[in-house]
Specification:
It is built from 15 helices and eight strands. The chain is an alpha+beta fold. It has two domains: 219 residues, no CATH class; 185 residues, Nucleotide cyclase, GGDEF domain (Alpha-Beta Plaits, 2-Layer Sandwich), CATH 3.30.70.1230. Strands 1, 2, 3, 4, 5, 6, 7 and 8 form an eight-stranded mixed sheet that branches. Strand 7 and strand 8 form a beta hairpin. The longest helix has 51 residues. The radius of gyration is 37 Å and the shape is rod-shaped.
Length: 427
């Protein structure tokens, strides 16, 4: 039951306490469907950069039109298309994971050179080469370091060319010094904003990826500790042993089997069978956890638990006997709650066992030995609604519990054995 709860909980994605605006996430996800998460994060950064540059173009076009449309008409005509050209960058993701990034860099370099050619270095427009160089690593990824370095080199060349060659505005652009100052004080904050937003979004994406990995790790830890005893799970995680196999000098084994369940459930739907067993064995699991015992496994409608392993405890016989009595009480409760009679046969035995982990892909902690076989025979040769134990276990528990003699019974593989029914606690 706990494994099912973990699987259900795992289906819910982890949420951060702080989020970026929803519209930005919607823009970032355009055209990224079908790519693996690592590629999607890079494409998302590309989308954010292209959308921001597209939006930042609008104030420039408005400035040209308001300040002097007649003198700056050519700038309006040349640079207005970049609003669309940057905005359609996500469209190119459908052609490959690198196409959109390459397209963005080409458009950015062409228009960057064009701006500097038109307005010169005093406009400060060449500062846009700086966020572009920083963003190249984010949009190409660390695995394409040469391509990112090449784009950064082109940005450096563009910046230096503006500083050395494009010192003054182009001859066909008639603007005064005040207009160039306006451009400078508009460009510098925008360039800083572009750097900040791009890096912030990239780190936010990386932080969410780390959170997902941490949640996946915690889920794996919880699931492993629910499949295996905690002490065994710790040994596996620490790599202390290639094979987990322990000889336990003294442990108590419990088997419980639902009487006549197979013929009764023959006409049930599969969902009804699983739901019924999950309900019953889930209650057994709660009892075992409360008493500090280990559930070993379920086999069909049979339940196996143990005390005194993997870590020894001196009272394992007493606690397992208490669990056996508790199972009978639980079955009576479940019968009243569901209206279906639930009767179990229970068998116990105590002694040395071997315990260990089987498999490498689907791990199973299991227990072997003559004690396990005897406990299984106590259950299979038992009577519904009773707890059957051999004489040695009765002698160890008779000062704490009451017993009823069943008699000498021929037990398969064991011969004639003196058997007893555990009936309750002594008061």
């Amino acid at each position: 039951m706990r494994e099912l709860e973990l699987l259900a909980a795992h289906g819910r994605p982890a949420r951060s306490r702080w989020r970026l605006p929803n519209f930005l996430w919607l823009i970032a996800r355009i055209g990224t469907a079908g790519y693996p998460p690592r590629i999607r994060r890079r494409l998302a950064v590309t989308n954010v950069i292209s959308s921001m540059v597209s939006l930042m173009t609008v104030p420039y076009i408005l400035l040209y039109a308001v300040y002097d449309l007649q003198a700056l008409k050519i700038a309006v005509l040349v640079f207005s298309p970049q609003i669309i050209l940057f905005a359609i960058t996500p469209y190119f993701h459908r052609f490959g994971s690198m196409v959109g990034a390459v397209y963005l860099c080409m458009v950015w370099l062409v228009f960057g050179i064009g701006y500097c050619l038109f307005f010169g270095r005093e406009s400060g427009l060449h500062f846009y080469f700086l966020p572009g160089a920083a963003a190249s690593m984010l949009i190409f990824g660390s695995e394409r370091l040469l391509l990112s370095g090449f784009v950064t080199f082109l940005a450096l060349c563009g910046f230096l060319t503006t500083e050395v060659v494009f010192v003054h505005p182009a001859p066909f652009i008639h603007v005064d010094q005040f207009f160039l100052e306006i451009l400078f004080y508009l460009t510098v904050p925008f360039a800083f904003l572009l750097i900040f937003t791009t890096v912030f979004f990239a780190f936010k994406e990386a932080a969410q990826a780390e959170m997902a990995l941490e949640e996946e790790y915690r889920y794996s830890e919880r699931l492993l500790e629910n499949i295996l005893p905690q002490a065994v799970a710790r040994r596996l995680k620490q790599g202390n042993a290639a094979i987990i196999a322990d000889h336990i000098d003294d442990a108590t084994i419990l088997f419980a089997d639902i009487v006549n369940f197979t013929p009764r459930s023959a006409g049930w739907q599969p969902q009804e069978v699983v739901s019924f067993l999950s309900h019953v064995f889930g209650r057994f699991d709660e009892l075992a956890a409360r008493l500090g015992l280990e559930k070993i496994k379920t086999i069909g409608d049979a339940y196996m638990a143990a005390g005194g392993l993997p870590e020894p405890r001196p009272d394992h016989r007493v606690v397992v006997a208490e669990m056996a009595l508790g199972i009978l009480d639980l079955c009576r409760e479940i019968s009243r709650e569901t209206g279906q009679e639930v009767t179990v046969r229970i068998g116990l035995d105590a002694g040395p066992v071997v315990a260990g982990v089987i498999g490498t892909s689907k791990l199973l902690y299991d227990v072997w030995g003559d004690t396990v076989n005897t406990a299984a025979r106590m259950e299979s040769h038992g009577v519904g609604g009773h707890i059957q134990v051999p004489n040695c276990l009765k002698e160890a528990l008779e000062d704490r519990f009451t017993f009823e003699r069943r008699g000498d019974i021929a037990v398969k593989g064991k011969g004639i054995m003196q058997l007893w029914f555990l009936t309750g606690k002594r008061t």
